[in-house]
Specification:
Elements (H helix, E strand, L loop, with lengths): L1 H15 L6 H18 L8 E7 L5 E11 L3 E10 L11 E6 L4 E7 L2 E2 L17 H19 E2 L3 H7 L1
Antiparallel strand pairs: 1-2, 1-7, 2-3, 3-4, 4-5, 5-6
Helix pairs in contact: 2-3
Amino acid sequence: MNVRMKRKKKQKTAARRRYVPDLISDMAECDANYIRLLRLFPNIHAEDDLEFGVQGIMEDGAIVNIQIIERCPFTTMLAIDVSSDEHQPWIKWPRLEVRVYHDVNSAEVVSFERHRNFKYRYYTLNPKLFQPDEKSQINRFFGELLTFCLSQGRVLSLQDFSEIE
């Protein structure tokens, strides 16, 4: 009987624990995303968009389009769209909107698909079924996408290639 009560008490305290965001790790991810983004799109201050292809492990590929939505003195708003070369209904790429803070060298996802204004912490049961660390996961996803684009990206046309050289 005593063991059962201890087990139930542990389950209740585990259920009450709230997710505590790691702000240092989250800011480090956003800062790393800024560096990755500038390596991928070095002329972000001069050009309005960038389009390139990425090749996966298999024969599938995708086209990545980074477009400037808005420019301000210290921030830039980007829209990132990924579309498959072939019509593959089983692959659904999300649309991202990213705010780039040039004064603090950071890039943060502000919109993922149609969801905006993410909180740093959600309760486990919420109407939109977000994870407790949803904002952190989305910024990590953006970092993984940028890393994949840097390692697997390719120029789409020779005209673009001659401009890069």
